[in-house]
Amino acid sequence: MVEHVIELKNVTKTFKNFSIDSLDLKVKQGFITGFIGANGAGKSTTIKMLMNLLKPDSGEVKMFGLDYKTHEKEIKERIGFVYDRNVFYEGLNLKDIKRVVGPAYKRWDDDLFHHYVDQFELPLNKPIKTFSKGMQMKASLAIALSHQAELIIMDEPTAGLDPVFKRDLLDLLQEIMVEGNRTIFFSTHHTSDLDRIADYITFLQSGELVFNQSIHELSDTFGLVKGKTELLDRDTKQAFIHLRKTNAGFEALTSDIKQVKQIFGESVLIENPSLEDIMYYVKRGSRE
Ligand SMILES: Nc1ncnc2c1ncn2[C@@H]1O[C@H](COP(=O)(O)OP(=O)(O)OP(=O)(O)O)[C@@H](O)[C@H]1O
User: Fold this and answer.
1) Cα 19 to middle of ligand 1, angstroms
2) For labeling, which of 163, 186, 192, 213 is most exposed (least CB within 10 Å)?
3) Where in the chain are all domains bearing CATH 3.40.50.300?
4) What is the pTM of this model?
């Protein structure tokens, strides 16, 4: 069994006004990894390369240790790609989909399909095109689970969902992790989703990987530092990715709590930043 279900090595993809440059990324098997980054950071482009919907200009994409060039069918069998825009014929209902899609997968299980359709409270006889966004997401997830996908890849699954439905979906994702060695990799702008369920966070900015770390490692390294403005000078400022002045003094992000403790001792307050704080300060810091 491979430890990393996704492995990108030196992946480069260049568009006219954007590029992903030498991206190295490993996603661990058996965990939920959240994929974050501002609009246009390259998340969808990366996900498309994982799905072989887009080919890198150079570099290597390995899924389950396998290459699309030689093992496309096997890889696709093992991945469930979940999105709201259903690629299946929109006029079809779930019963038709079972008939059409099921036989395409070696490990398709009709009983499982009915189990999830029941659990997700989806109608079997209504055309998919009449489904709400949330229902389409669930339908897509039911199909992925019915062919027993080991890796579930989702591009912004919670976008546009109401808070109750969203929570429902996140609970579901957590539930399906209990069964076996599944891996979930999904992009989102809702960092609170990740505080709730993610084990690892992959953060992309302008096509570059900022970090790919466990939530625990993040809270060990990143700190939100608050203190009096008098503490700041050219040297001490170096400890921060970015800082902003507030009415009360300054607030700044560090990726090296130890160093901040050495420099400032007890004179500053160090809090645990939210993912949103980290994204905000890293983005601002990169503009300096
Ligand atoms: N086929 C393409 N041709 C040219 N440029 C493209 C193409 N696809 C994506 N881009 C550009 O690549 C950049 C990254 O887009 P991408 O959709 O991967 O970002 P994202 O992180 O998913 O953004 P969002 O969070 O807004 O969905 C954008 O500037 C986009 O305009």
Assistant:
1) 9
2) 163
3) 4-214
4) 0.91
